[in-house]
């Protein structure tokens, strides 16, 4: 088959006809273009190991011809990232990146150098270095009229600006890049996927729930255009974290659980990002044991410090929580990406009575908060640490959390207002605590709901009308609840009901969620109080 066969394969790829593309490329023989096309087919069909092998064969074939330009892209943009994301093999990934950089350096002024510059962005956490590579990539894209490179670099630049604290400017660039992807100006499905992932990453960084919701249609559109499973995994991970903040915990659990499953079939070395975000949800639900089980083996992920520290805080292990958070701050700095860590550390310092340290953190939060949700967190922290006009800080935070669509944080603010107002205005305090309890119960935030109910009792009023009804459970879940009442473990429940251990664990988790219980011990107590069926 001559070169037209490769063209047929490329056309079939563009149209999503994977079997036709594979047949065309296989008929093209042992040519690097054919291996490259087959690699793309394997990639789209989820066989990432095979895709890497075929890309290496394509690379060898192109280099045997003495070519440098496209092999530079294969090495730096594709193989370097694939080895890191699929295998977690950073040494080999680094070798391919360096090989791509050297080939780009001898290739002269060409568009391929721009893609190598873009690949270098992912290899560093230094914002100055990232921006230098992005400026070079953008210059090349504009001069050579490479729209895909231009909009990809635009999205990456938007994230860098957000991390710099220039949130409005960065989000405008991300909006423009996403619009270009939506409008068909971006030809590469891979680039379109990258742009959307960067958009949702930025939304997670600044808790921009509204923008994330408004761009989810792009994810649906992209999904209909291609089989980019990795994009689904990454986007679901970021969107799931946003949904946690937005108080849609059932949907968040679905997105994060799906993300974990999809990651394990593609970029398995990156799976920890979704796992630790799911652990964060579990901590907020008060399901600490499950959170800690999820975190085993994923403690290296930079996001893991948050659920780990929250679990220590929930148990009253304040020094452990503070040590984890301070160590993280020392390693990663105190810029905008670390905003949630600084806010949590301030909360821990308040709980430990170290108000001077907490006030320093509060001042830092105020200095870097440049969006409504982040300013709300800064205001909440200012009230928490006892900065003058405490009520004003909490009232401002309350209004901003409502505007930003963050009901969990709004309810936490109502709780703090209730505590502050209780001595002088018990009626207002009761109203705030009741409103908070309602939200916590609806979300399934067990520990916070218990705290709200306790506060109401201290005000001389009854917080809850009674426990949730077992009628919410399915027949199988009621059987599981009964066995929990007998003190059985998950393996024992699985054996008793002739189901898998994984299914037993799923049923236990569902029972805890539906009944608003924090752990197995509470479930056992609850079950003991139920009449025999």
Automatic annotation (TrEMBL):
The keyword Lyase does not apply. Coiled coil: none annotated. InterPro entries: Sig_transdc_resp-reg_C-effctor, TPR-like_helical_dom_sf, Tscrpt_reg_LuxR_C, WalR-like, WH-like_DNA-bd_sf. It comes from Actinokineospora xionganensis. Keywords: DNA-binding, Transcription, Transcription regulation. The keyword Secreted does not apply. PROSITE patterns: HTH_LUXR_2. This is Helix-turn-helix transcriptional regulator. Residues 466-531 form the HTH luxR-type domain. CDD domains: LuxR_C_like (cd06170). PANTHER family: TRANSCRIPTIONAL REGULATORY PROTEIN NARL-RELATED, TWO-COMPONENT RESPONSE REGULATOR. It comes from the Bacteria.
